[in-house]
Automatic annotation (TrEMBL):
Keywords: Lyase, Magnesium, Metal-binding. It holds the Pfam family Terpene_syn_C_2. GO terms for molecular function: metal ion binding; terpene synthase activity. This is Terpene synthase. Belongs to the terpene synthase family. InterPro entries: Isoprenoid_synthase_dom_sf, Selin_dien_syn, Terpene_cyclase-like_2. Its cofactor is Mg(2+). The keyword Magnesium applies. Its EC number is 4.2.3.-. PANTHER family: BETA-PINACENE SYNTHASE-RELATED (PTHR35201:SF4), TERPENE SYNTHASE (PTHR35201). The keyword tRNA processing does not apply.
Length: 367
């Protein structure tokens, strides 16, 4: 199925040292033996270093490197344990393994999984998180890793039973099983600041984070659908969930795109408001969330992980500045409909500024 150009009002960017990051991530994967030899050979071709460089285009290079290595490690867990391995169909056994890995993340000195490559890589990642961030940021990184582990066990229960969740449950699962929340503390580390609790814990900030996660994971589902269907066997994405609900493949695609467009327009309005009303650190954090959204989009349409050159996917090569759905009404998804209650009515500060200018730029293309 052909994926049309997706709406993206966020300009692209990439860190100038992206090529160096890519080389070092390949070396890190080999040094820690992440995944099987076959999986590792695939992962190092997926331009994961460039992904991190797009998410943190102006970040500290050492934190960009940390994110790249961490994302490759996550794929070692997700692809190696959850989707392609036997553990991905045995939620109880998967929970055991992930609980031990969580203990390694909490306390790297514990003598658990000493000969396990994933545990070895995780110990290295935790040491670098401690080195580049504060104690609070490290604690939140571990807490978000717990959320990710918890959600992939939920997904494994569906994979083992061959079932498909309803849309609200799938949305709730997807907010965490994409591991987007584990990246949030790294966005702060990349620029050497830490949000204060009164800002970080505000409901509107959490809504903006969840909106960003929704758009990133919906885009991933849309752009990876060809790869997952081509692989055969069980797969789970929003298109399959919508088709299980009675939509045709074409209707599911249009619906999923409209859903992410509506959320993205709300995210832009909310992040504009938070940037205008918040501290300098809040402005930087909202800019980081935007880069995370756009960097994921640019990587998604360019990485061989999703373009699958041997069986080319019909992915777009650019983006559009026109949403298919910019309604200000909440999506009819129970788990997330509360977001719209914290989006201020009326135009955002940026929208008011743009409205005073003669014409507007078209933000398309990739970095």
């Amino acid at each position: 199925m052909i994926v049309p150009p997706l709406f993206s009002p966020i300009p692209p960017a990439i860190h100038p040292r992206h090529a160096d990051v890519e080389v070092r991530t390949t070396a890190w994967a080999e040094a820690h033996r992440i995944g099987s030899d076959e999986l590792r050979r695939r992962l190092v071709r997926h331009a994961i270093g460039s992904f991190a460089a797009r998410v943190m285009p102006a970040g500290r290079e050492e934190v960009v490197q940390l994110m790249a290595d961490f994302v490759l490690w996550l794929f070692g867990v997700d692809d190696g344990c959850c989707e392609e391995g036997d553990l991905g169909r045995r939620p109880g056994d998967l929970a055991e393994t992930l609980h031990r890995l969580l203990r390694v993340a909490q306390n790297p000195e514990v003598p658990l999984m000493l000969d396990d490559p994933l545990a070895d890589g995780l110990r290295d990642l935790r040491a670098r998180v401690d080195g580049y961030g504060t104690a609070g940021q490290a604690a939140r990184w571990v807490s978000h890793l717990r959320e990710y582990f918890f959600s992939v066990v939920w997904e494994a229960s569906h994979r083992g039973a061959g079932t498909v969740p309803g849309l609200s449950d799938y949305t709730l699962m997807r907010l965490y099983d994409g591991a987007t929340t584990v990246v949030f503390p790294l966005l702060e580390m990349a620029h050497g600041y830490e949000l204060q609790p009164h800002e970080r814990d505000h409901r509107a900030v959490r809504a903006a984070e969840e909106m960003a996660s929704f758009v990133i994971t919906w885009d991933n589902d849309i752009l990876s659908d060809h790869k997952e269907r081509g692989a055969g066997g069980y797969f789970l994405n929003v298109l399959r969930v919508l088709e299980e609900g009675g939509l045709t493949a074409g209707e599911a695609m249009s619906t999923a795109i409209a859903q992410r467009d509506r959320v993205l327009t709300a995210f832009v309005r909310l992040s504009d408001h938070l940037s205008a009303a918040g501290s300098p650190q809040m402005r930087q954090y909202m800019a980081g969330l935007r880069s995370f959204v756009r960097g994921s989009q640019d990587w998604g349409i360019s990485s061989v992980r999703y373009t699958t050159p041997d069986d080319p996917a019909g992915l777009p090569v650019a983006f559009t500045d026109t949403p298919t759905d910019d309604s200000r009404e909440p999506l009819p998804i129970e788990a997330v409909s509360w977001w719209w209650g914290v989006v201020p009515p009326g135009p955002s500060p940026v929208e008011r500024l743009v409205a005073t200018r003669p014409g507007r730029a078209r933000l398309v293309g990739t970095a």
